[in-house]
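HUMAN: Ready with one sample?

ASSISTANT:
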Amino acid sequence: MSNLRAVRLDWLGRGMRFRAVGAEPATPAIEIDGDGDSGPSPMIALLMAAAGCTGADVVSIREKMRVGLAQLTVEVEGERREEQPRRYVRVHCRYRLAGQDLDEAKAERAVALSLEKYCSVMASLAPDIQVTHEVVLA
């Protein structure tokens, strides 16, 4: 499998609405809306991608730790600069986990491994973005 990934983005002919699809077969299309009306804006889509990537890591790491995980919610907040480019300067991730045999140390370890080693989306962000996190066990 190649390390190259590609997407195609087509303007839908009105406003800031676009249809995005991955080049890989069977990748579902999503609508990206620069105005945030009919779909996520590009900056919200970036936070969604970060949440999805780190969430998948945490699920995978927890499975390897053989700790039951019944529920995971990842909430990601990003703070943007006021001036252009209005990029993120801070990102905060909140992980809400529920399940059998959960312990805070293992949950923290799974999250730390994701953020520091495995999450490709977070690793793709500018290195000066402050990334913080918290873990909430239910």
Observations:
- The mean pLDDT is 95.
